[in-house]
Amino acid sequence: MLQVTRSPRRLARLLVVAATAVSSVVPTAAYAAAGPLVLAPPPVQDEDLAGDHLTVTVRHTGNGMDGTYELHCHPGSGDHPDVAGACDALDRGTRWGKDTFAPVPEGSICTMQYGGPATAHVTGTWAGRPVDASYDRSDGCEIARWGRLVPLLPDLRPQGQM
Question: Is residue 61 part of a domain?
Answer without folding.
Answer: yes
